[in-house]
Design a protein that fits this description.
The chain is of the alpha/beta class. Helix content is about 35%, strand content about 20%. It contains 15 helices and 20 strands. Strands 7, 8, 9, 10, 11, 14, 15, 16 and 18 form a 9-stranded mixed sheet that branches. Strands 1-6-5-2-4-3 form a 6-stranded mixed sheet, with helices on one face. Helix 5 (about 165-190) runs antiparallel to helix 9, helix 6 (about 195-210) runs parallel beside helix 9 (about 290-305) and helix 12 packs across helix 15 (about 485-495). The radius of gyration is 24 Å and the shape is elongated. The protein starts with a strand and ends with a helix.
């Protein structure tokens, strides 16, 4: 989709649709809505008086061939209560507009921002929303969904003096949204089209296109590095594992500057191994690599945005399959760190591969660590699909991640990680076991397991099992992979670089 900033008066913009938004309880109509109302001969006032236009969240009011406008349609979307409106809602509103209009075969649109949203942040949110909303997971469909793709969108309302600022926001929004959509593409791929080796090729191509350094470790190199936890998960599959290491290095690095490690779980398909999952909904286990996809998307964005900190992305990739060579419940594995692990449940495999990824990140000199993983069903029980669960070893760094999530508009919630949970993963025959003893706390004991491999390094774990994909589409998003955590990790890295 082509995006541009438009400084002409809204009435003069030629498009398939001109879009703006109304707040709940706005009486009389103010600002841009008052201007639009005058242009269309008071039609909006009449609609408001008849309660067809109320401003309720994502309510749509569509006028065809409105007099006084060169646009073929005028779409007013409800923005909800003014006091609850932020760039997060603006992003969703723009995405909802894109999805609503493309379903009606509109190819060209313009979004008229209200006066208070004509900032770089507003332009960024609108650009992100348009690109995220336009996205469809229809790569393998013969007929594309919702009337095809949008071709052109203009961000309207900015003055000539503010044009450069809007362009900066638009550029940043495009980079981040396209990187999030890159992660969504990976997450939506069927597992027969995205094995670990296929993920390797996709990552190499992306890194080469944007100038990121990349190393790929095959199974022989993983054995040399003694990554026994990762190899133990892979041993049940004919598909060999991979470890992807992508590095962004700024032109100038200050002495003592932090090095951010982004570690993402990429189980390209998870049957559960010998502790096999039920057949119902098992097809969703292609999404078990969404943490790795998110970190690849974040690295893509950071290569363009160029923060002033070094960032290393580490993605352990494997399948988890049952076979005659698969690891069994009761086996003991030795992780790269030298710590021994009793495997109680082979379906608790994500923490195994992350343990080697986190330890290796520390070996590479990462001073701060964030991992993202579709790790536990327990976090879905706790938080449903609304919030990502956040676990951290350092309160200051955890708050930085949470602040980044708020800025990025990704809902996250801090979870406990008390020392008592460590007692639940003690093993009688090894250093630790890969699931907690007793009932309850599954998401917390999984995080406690990961903490064993982070040492004194400030670390945050993002359990995205409930937020990594949508089982049903939303007005602002297609069904499927969401690309969650890309925006938060980007915001965090940009903040660390200031």
């Amino acid at each position: 989709m082509e995006l541009t900033v438009e400084t002409r008066a809204a009435a003069q913009i030629e498009a398939g649709a001109l879009v703006s938004y109304a707040f709940e309880g706005d009486k009389p109509l103010e600002g841009v809505l008052a201007d639009l109302d005058r242009a269309v001969g008071g039609a909006l006032t009449k609609l408001a008086e008849s309660k067809e236009l109320t401003g309720k969240w994502l309510e749509t009011t569509l006028l065809h061939y409105p007099q006084g406008l060169k646009a073929e349609r005028l779409l007013i979307i409800g923005a909800g209560k003014r006091e609850k409106f932020s760039v997060t809602e603006l992003r969703k509103l723009a995405a909802a507009a894109a999805r609503y209009l493309k379903a009606r075969s509109v190819k060209r649109l313009a979004i008229l921002a209200r006066e208070e949203d004509r900032t770089a942040g507003g332009a960024e949110a609108i650009a992100e929303g348009l690109l995220l909303g336009e996205y469809e997971a229809d790569k393998y469909k013969s007929e594309k969904k919702n009337g095809g793709a949008l071709e052109f969108a203009a961000l309207a309302g900015w003055s000539g003096a503010a044009h450069a600022e809007a362009e900066r926001g638009l550029r940043r929004g495009r980079i981040i949204a396209e990187s999030q959509n890159f992660a969504r593409d990976l997450g939506n791929e069927p597992s027969n089209y995205l094995t670990p080796r296929m993920l390797e090729h996709r990552a190499i191509q992306m890194a080469r296109d944007i100038g990121l350094a990349i190393e790929v470790f095959d199974e022989k190199k993983l054995a040399e590095l003694k990554m026994g936890a990762l190899l133990s998960v892979a041993q049940g599959s004919i598909e060999p594992p991979r470890l992807l290491v992508l590095t962004y290095t700024p032109e100038k690095v200050a002495a003592g500057a932090p090095v951010l490690g982004l570690v993402g779980k990429a189980v390209t398909f998870d049957t559960g191994g010998i502790s096999i999952k039920p057949a119902n909904n098992m097809e969703e286990m292609k999404f078990d690599m969404c943490g790795g996809a998110a970190m690849l998307g974040a690295m893509r964005a950071l290569a363009h945005l160029k923060p002033a900190v070094k960032v290393i992305g580490i993605v352990p990739a494997t399948e988890n399959m049952p076979s005659g060579t698969a690891q069994k419940p009761g086996d003991v594995q030795t992780a790269m760190s030298g710590k021994t692990i009793e495997v109680i449940n082979t379906d608790a495999e994500g923490r195994l591969i992350l343990s080697d990824g986190l330890h290796y990140a520390r070996q590479l000199g990462c001073t701060h660590l964030v991992d993202a993983a579709t790790l536990t069903g327990a976090i879905v029980v706790a938080l449903a699909n609304v919030n990502t669960g956040v676990f951290g070893s350092d309160s200051n760094f955890t708050e930085q991640v949470l602040a980044a999530s708020r800025t990025a508009g990704e809902k996250m919630w801090a979870m406990p990680l008390d020392d008592e949970y460590r007692e639940m993963i003690k093993s009688t025959i090894a250093d630790i076991q890969n699931v907690g003893s007793g009932k309850g706390g599954g998401a917390v004991t999984a995080a406690a397991f990961l903490r064993e491999f982070t040492g004194e390094t400030p670390w945050v774990h993002l359990d995205i099992a409930g937020t990594a994909w949508l089982t049903e589409g939303k007005p602002w998003s297609a069904k499927g992979a969401t690309g969650v955590a890309v925006r938060t990790c980007v915001e965090l890295a940009m903040h660390l670089g200031t």
